[in-house]
Write a structure and sequence with these properties.
four-stranded parallel β-sheet, 14 strands
Length: about 140
Protein backbone atom coordinates (compact mmCIF):
# COMPACT_ATOMS: atom_id res chain seq x y z
CA UNK A 1 0.00 0.00 0.00
CA UNK A 2 1.33 3.42 -0.94
CA UNK A 3 1.53 6.17 1.66
CA UNK A 4 -0.14 9.43 0.68
CA UNK A 5 0.92 12.95 1.46
CA UNK A 6 -2.01 14.86 2.94
CA UNK A 7 -2.65 18.56 2.47
CA UNK A 8 -3.73 20.16 5.77
CA UNK A 9 -4.57 23.63 7.02
CA UNK A 10 -1.61 25.50 8.52
CA UNK A 11 -3.66 26.17 11.66
CA UNK A 12 -3.30 22.46 12.56
CA UNK A 13 0.50 22.64 12.78
CA UNK A 14 1.58 22.02 16.37
CA UNK A 15 -1.63 20.39 17.58
CA UNK A 16 -2.92 16.83 18.09
CA UNK A 17 0.56 15.30 18.39
CA UNK A 18 -0.69 12.86 21.04
CA UNK A 19 -3.94 11.32 19.89
CA UNK A 20 -6.87 10.47 22.17
CA UNK A 21 -6.19 6.73 22.02
CA UNK A 22 -3.06 7.30 24.19
CA UNK A 23 -4.77 9.52 26.77
CA UNK A 24 -7.03 8.91 29.73
CA UNK A 25 -10.38 10.77 29.67
CA UNK A 26 -9.05 13.43 32.10
CA UNK A 27 -5.82 14.05 30.13
CA UNK A 28 -5.17 16.43 27.24
CA UNK A 29 -2.44 16.33 24.61
CA UNK A 30 -0.12 18.28 26.94
CA UNK A 31 -0.40 15.92 29.91
CA UNK A 32 2.88 14.03 29.38
CA UNK A 33 4.70 17.13 28.16
CA UNK A 34 3.75 18.95 31.38
CA UNK A 35 5.07 16.04 33.47
CA UNK A 36 8.37 16.00 31.57
CA UNK A 37 8.83 19.78 31.56
CA UNK A 38 8.80 20.10 35.34
CA UNK A 39 7.13 23.52 35.20
CA UNK A 40 3.51 24.54 35.48
CA UNK A 41 1.60 27.08 33.42
CA UNK A 42 1.86 29.47 36.39
CA UNK A 43 5.57 29.81 35.52
CA UNK A 44 4.60 31.45 32.21
CA UNK A 45 2.55 34.41 31.05
CA UNK A 46 0.99 35.55 27.79
CA UNK A 47 2.81 38.03 25.59
CA UNK A 48 1.78 41.67 25.85
CA UNK A 49 0.56 43.45 22.72
CA UNK A 50 3.74 45.54 22.75
CA UNK A 51 5.88 42.37 22.82
CA UNK A 52 3.87 40.91 19.92
CA UNK A 53 4.37 44.13 17.94
CA UNK A 54 8.14 43.99 18.57
CA UNK A 55 8.29 40.32 17.58
CA UNK A 56 6.40 40.97 14.34
CA UNK A 57 8.60 43.96 13.47
CA UNK A 58 11.57 41.63 13.88
CA UNK A 59 10.05 39.31 11.22
CA UNK A 60 8.64 36.70 13.60
CA UNK A 61 5.32 34.96 12.95
CA UNK A 62 2.88 32.74 14.80
CA UNK A 63 -0.36 31.05 13.80
CA UNK A 64 -1.68 32.08 17.25
CA UNK A 65 0.31 34.45 19.49
CA UNK A 66 -1.94 33.53 22.45
CA UNK A 67 -0.27 30.10 22.40
CA UNK A 68 3.24 31.57 22.84
CA UNK A 69 3.91 31.86 26.57
CA UNK A 70 7.00 33.37 28.21
CA UNK A 71 8.69 33.68 31.61
CA UNK A 72 10.17 36.82 33.10
CA UNK A 73 12.63 38.25 32.40
CA UNK A 74 11.78 38.14 28.69
CA UNK A 75 13.38 40.32 25.99
CA UNK A 76 11.51 40.17 22.65
CA UNK A 77 14.49 41.81 20.91
CA UNK A 78 16.38 38.51 21.30
CA UNK A 79 14.02 36.74 18.89
CA UNK A 80 14.33 37.40 15.16
CA UNK A 81 13.09 35.87 11.89
CA UNK A 82 11.46 32.87 13.55
CA UNK A 83 8.07 31.12 13.34
CA UNK A 84 6.05 29.66 16.20
CA UNK A 85 3.25 27.09 15.91
CA UNK A 86 1.18 25.36 18.58
CA UNK A 87 1.82 25.78 22.30
CA UNK A 88 5.33 27.21 22.69
CA UNK A 89 6.61 28.04 26.18
CA UNK A 90 9.78 30.12 26.42
CA UNK A 91 11.74 30.43 29.66
CA UNK A 92 13.79 33.33 30.96
CA UNK A 93 15.79 35.17 28.30
CA UNK A 94 18.18 38.08 28.74
CA UNK A 95 20.68 39.89 26.53
CA UNK A 96 23.66 37.83 27.70
CA UNK A 97 26.04 35.22 26.33
CA UNK A 98 26.22 31.48 26.89
CA UNK A 99 29.60 29.76 27.05
CA UNK A 100 30.57 26.11 26.90
CA UNK A 101 34.37 25.73 26.97
CA UNK A 102 35.55 28.06 24.17
CA UNK A 103 32.18 28.17 22.37
CA UNK A 104 30.30 31.42 23.04
CA UNK A 105 26.87 32.31 21.63
CA UNK A 106 24.16 34.91 22.25
CA UNK A 107 21.00 33.91 24.07
CA UNK A 108 17.90 34.06 21.92
CA UNK A 109 16.08 32.50 19.01
CA UNK A 110 16.91 33.43 15.41
CA UNK A 111 16.06 32.06 11.96
CA UNK A 112 14.19 29.07 13.39
CA UNK A 113 10.83 27.27 13.17
CA UNK A 114 9.54 26.19 16.59
CA UNK A 115 6.55 23.84 16.76
CA UNK A 116 4.90 23.05 20.09
CA UNK A 117 8.10 23.09 22.20
CA UNK A 118 9.06 24.00 25.75
CA UNK A 119 12.23 26.09 25.76
CA UNK A 120 13.62 26.42 29.25
CA UNK A 121 15.67 29.25 30.76
CA UNK A 122 18.63 30.94 29.07
CA UNK A 123 18.96 29.12 25.76
CA UNK A 124 20.33 29.80 22.29
CA UNK A 125 18.47 28.44 19.26
CA UNK A 126 19.88 29.72 15.98
CA UNK A 127 19.25 28.56 12.40
CA UNK A 128 17.15 25.52 13.32
CA UNK A 129 14.90 24.77 10.36
CA UNK A 130 12.39 22.47 12.10
CA UNK A 131 12.22 21.97 15.87
CA UNK A 132 9.02 20.11 16.75
CA UNK A 133 7.68 18.76 20.06
CA UNK A 134 10.92 19.04 22.06
CA UNK A 135 11.75 20.17 25.57
CA UNK A 136 14.97 22.19 25.35
CA UNK A 137 16.90 22.44 28.63
Amino acid sequence: MKERVEVLEESLLGYNFVTEEYLEPTQDEYYYRNLQNGKSNEDYRHLTQMEIDILEKRLNTSNDWSQVLVSDPFDPYLIKSSSFYGLVRIGKMENKLLRFHDFVVNQGITNSRIISCDIQDYVAIHDVKYLSHYIIK
